Amino acid sequence: VGVLMAQSLSKIKWNEMEIAIPSFLILLGMPLTYSISDGIALGFIFYPITMIAAKRGKEVSPIMYGLFFVFVGFMWILNV
User: Fold this and answer.
1) Whole-angstrom Cα distance, residue 47 to residue 45?
2) How many domains are there within the chain?
3) Where are the coiled-coil regions (predicted)?
């Protein structure tokens, strides 16, 4: 599984920070939290944030904004 994930790293647009930051947080979050779902949650949380910060918020689908709130709630419940 790790090799298949590593092959996908070359397809990430590392020069676009609004894409690179959430991708990096997913990569960093999985091993640091010992949880694949927590790492993915970080990506779902930070992708809309970075897109809004880059003034590209209209490119994010409404479903992604919905998932943002779902995963913020997920992280909040885990930490309560």
Assistant:
1) 6
2) 1
3) none
In the numeric block, the tokens 């689908």 are attached to 61
Q: Which long-range contacts (CB under 8 A, 24 or more apart) does 47-55 make?
A: 47/18, 47/22, 50/17, 50/18, 50/19, 50/21, 50/22, 51/18, 53/18, 54/17, 54/18
CA atoms of 44 and 1, how far apart (whole Å): 21
Total-model pTM: 0.84
Residue 52 dihedral angles phi and psi, to the nearest 5° = -65, -40
What residue numbers bound the domain in which 20 lies?
2-79
Tens of pLDDT, residue by residue over 6-28, are: 888 889 999 999 999 999 999 99
